[in-house]
UniProtKB/TrEMBL annotation, chain A:
PROSITE patterns in the record: 4FE4S_FER_1
GO molecular function annotation: 4 iron, 4 sulfur cluster binding; metal ion binding
Residue span(s) of domain Lactate utilization protein B C-terminal: 405-475
GO biological process: one example: lactate metabolic process
Record keywords: 4Fe-4S, Electron transport, Iron, Iron-sulfur, Metal-binding, Repeat, Transport
Name assigned to this protein: Iron-sulfur cluster-binding protein
Automatic annotation (TrEMBL), chain B:
Name assigned to this protein: LUD domain-containing protein
Stretches with biased composition (Low complexity): 11-36
PANTHER family noted in UniProt: LACTATE UTILIZATION PROTEIN C (PTHR43682:SF1)
Organism: Planobispora rosea
Domain LUD: residue ranges: 79-246
Biased composition (Polar residues): 1-10
Length: 481, 247
């Protein structure tokens, strides 16, 4: 998508368009149901799941409380192990640092491991502006990149595409980026995965620079941890001479031992497996590599300052909350207008954007971004399924309500709320209002007039009883008279 | 490498002398800024958490995984074999004395002729690698290039640990395992795990491993679920993983 989206593409408008797309809804329903079942089975296998979840939450909270100390410890450990640490206050600075590091190697292309942080800061676009081509190597990211598309899920970014759409993208676009798709490519997932293997093979073997994110960083040892499935991560982390990792400052864990908790929580919550196929850990410059770690703030410290909202920084990007969310299942990831979709996106994006930038599909102007962010806390029915499934117990509904309170409210709504507050403030006022309502109930329209009709378009007005409960109690003594 | 989509790259790939200088000064400026950003980020963190209460961490989860994973060695081996096979890896459980025979049989079945052997692989296993007709054990000394590795038919290694509960093998680039690329680029990985290396669960593995070594945790062959969440084994890493558990 390019160009500026005029008007106000806030969540409701995006979602209204998305739910009309029956292919999208079918793809999403199928995918989220499959993965929900797998997650529930493997999480249920561990008798101490609840205790692991508690420990995960506490370790993250403890780390965030002492983040300054642990970041300094990490910096020292990485440096001691031969790595270099860079600090980036915002997206622009992180992009500048990475581009400078790539240019210093004399290379004009890099291979990339799937990374939410680099998507958040729009790294690929920033590198392109400096003449550097970034090749995505995760299969889903490849589908998104070749299709000139936008990710719609944290774990499986091309979940909105089905197999035949993917075959078309491969047939039409692979040749522009490198080795073309094989002749007679079918839409069998095996054949599509094989096409991706062939397309990227030479690229892996020849690349000199790789860019990754990380799932965890260990302060005590300076170790970085990447979980993946395909082996593209291992290719990028292992083969190139220079490795640059861009990691949000909240990805820290204090000790090596803490991994015993998170290596149980993350794979089971994310892909619904007992363990993901590959996990790589490395400390500093491994096997003679040149290693750079770029620590990214980009709005995180502002989130940390919010007592209720800061729990969003515990997120380990497992995407379990997306897979259980009834709103996500129907609206899809694009409606959230950010690289972070779903329930976690609805609380993370608006908070990060208070003082950082988060890339959005439509490259929105600031006013439209503000409207979108104001609408995101409402992209939920507050059913709480996301909280229940979250492996680090982020109370997403609590943060949503907190953000709703902070969002700007229209004058009419504020007046209405003030009037309601006045009535509810004294029992006598409430009783009078109820009696008035009971007397006028015959005149209640089925649909409200004017702007209030938006509410009754999709809901029935509740019937007003002839008599309030308290009046009935007073009259009959609770049915005894 | 050829660039095939110049149109996506607005600026030319050649950097002129003057823009190189601009770049250099930009880079040194960045390192100063990075210092400033370091202080700024740390200050923001301190301001953000000032007065927040300390959070104690309680670890009431299982520190030692109970049976069957944490049961007798026999139970752990059985569970490990079952869980590795769940990932659609090929699994054998044999007596240690039969290691060489199983290695050469597996390579012959696979038709793997030129197979890389990491330094420090037990002599008996290494000899078995070249024992089948046409078989050749290729040492990684001097280190093979990525392209040379790509032309080989497979790799045979030991491991640092196995995890019964998750069916995971951990390599730490130690003797008999080689550097990380060895078990990545060839399309076939035959891995030998001694029963004594199998630990019950993730906590025991974390305690046994050295974080200062580069670690690779392997749970089945390379896989993806990116297309309609249909699991497909075999993308960029070895598409076939064969595991021999030695009792």
């Amino acid at each position: 998508m390019s160009g500026v989206f005029l008007g106000m593409p806030a969540f409701p408008e995006n979602a209204a368009a998305a739910v009309q797309d029956s292919q999208l809804r079918f793809n999403l329903r199928r995918a989220t149901r499959t993965i929900r079942g797998k997650r529930a089975a493997v999480a249920g296998e561990l008798p101490d799941w609840a205790a692991l979840r508690d420990a995960g939450k506490q370790i993250k909270d403890h780390t965030l409380r002492n983040l300054d100390r642990y970041l300094l410890q990490l910096e020292e450990a990485v440096t001691r192990a031969g790595g270099r640490v860079h600090w980036a206050a915002d997206a622009a600075e992180a992009n500048r640092i990475v581009a400078g590091l790539v240019e210093a190697t004399g290379e004009t292309s890099v291979v990339k491991v799937k990374s939410m942080a680099t998507q958040e800061i729009g790294l690929n676009e920033a590198l392109a502006e400096r003449g550097i081509t970034a090749y995505e190597t995760d299969l889903a990211e490849l589908i998104v990149q070749l299709g000139d598309d936008w990710p719609s899920h944290i774990l499986v970014p091309a979940i909105h595409r089905n197999r035949s759409e993917i075959r078309e993208i491969f047939r039409e676009r692979m040749g522009e980026w490198g080795r073309p798709a094989p002749e007679g490519l079918t839409d069998d997932p095996r054949a599509l995965a094989e096409a991706a293997r062939l397309h990227l093979r030479e690229r892996f073997l020849a690349s000199e620079v790789a860019i990754s994110g990380a799932n965890f960083m260990i302060a005590e040892t300076g170790t970085l941890v990447v979980l993946e499935s395909e082996g593209n991560g291992r290719m990028c982390l292992t083969l190139p001479r220079t490795l640059i990792s861009v990691v949000g400052i909240e990805k820290l864990l204090p000790t090596w031992r803490d991994l015993e908790v998170f290596l149980q929580l993350l794979p089971r919550s994310s892909t619904g497996e007992r363990m993901n196929p590959y996990t790589s850990t490395w400390t500093g410059a491994a096997e003679g590599q040149e290693f750079h770690l770029v620590l990214l703030d980009n709005g995180r410290t502002a989130v940390l300052a919010d007592e209720v909202g800061r729990q969003a920084l515990r997120c380990i990007r497992c995407s379990a909350c997306l897979n259980v969310c009834p709103v996500y299942e129907r609206a899809g990831g694009h409606a959230y207008g950010s690289v972070y979709p779903g329930p976690i996106g609805a609380i993370l994006t608006p908070q990060l954007r208070r003082s950082g930038t988060v890339a959005s599909r439509d490259r929105l102007p600031p006013s439209a971004t503000r409207d979108l962010d104001a609408s995101l806390p409402y992209a939920s029915s507050l059913c709480g399924a996301c909280f229940e499934v979250c492996p680090v117990a982020i109370d997403i509904p609590e943060v949503l309500v907190h953000l709703r309170a902070q969002a700007p409210h229209p004058r009419a709504e504020r007046l209405g709320m003030r009037a309601a507050g006045w009535v509810f403030d004294r029992p006598v006022r409430l009783a009078r209002a109820q009696r008035l309502g009971g007397r006028l109930r015959r005149f209640l329209p089925r649909r409200l007039p004017g702007p209030l009709s938006a509410w009754t378009d999709t809901r029935d007005i509740p019937d007003i009883p002839a008599e309030s409960f308290r009046d009935w109690w007073g009259r009959t003594g609770g049915g005894t008279r | 490498m050829t660039r095939s989509q110049g149109s996506r790259v607005p600026q030319g790939s050649q950097t002129s002398q003057s823009s190189q200088e601009v770049q250099d000064s930009q880079n040194s400026q960045d390192s100063q800024n990075s210092q400033g950003s370091r202080d700024r980020i740390l200050a923001r963190i301190r301001a953000a958490v000032a007065g927040a209460p300390e959070v104690p961490v309680t670890r009431s989860y299982r520190h030692r995984v109970p049976p069957p994973a944490g049961g007798t060695p026999g139970e752990a081996v059985e569970l490990f074999a079952e869980r590795v096979a769940d990932y659609r890896a090929v699994v054998h459980v044999v007596e240690s004395a039969r290691a060489a025979e199983v290695i050469s049989g597996a390579l012959a079945r696979r038709g793997a002729r030129r197979v890389v052997v990491p330094g420090g692989l037990p002599e008996e296993w290494a000899r078995a690698v070249g024992a089948h007709p046409g078989g050749e054990a290729v040492p990684d000394d001097p280190p093979l290039s990525a392209a040379e590795l790509d032309a080989l038919d497979g790799v045979v290694t030991g491991c640092a640990a196995g995890i019964a509960e998750t069916g995971t093998i951990v390599l730490d680039a130690g003797p008999g395992q080689g550097r990380r690329a060895l078990t990545l680029v060839p399309d076939y990985h035959l891995c030998l795990v001694r029963a004594g290396q199998i630990v019950p669960g993730v906590p025991e593995a974390i305690a046994a491993l050295d974080p200062l070594r580069p670690l690779t945790w392997i749970s089945g062959p390379s896989a993806t679920s990116d297309i309609e969440l249909d699991r497909v084994e075999g993308v960029h890493g070895p598409r076939t993983l064969e595991v021999v558990i030695l009792r």
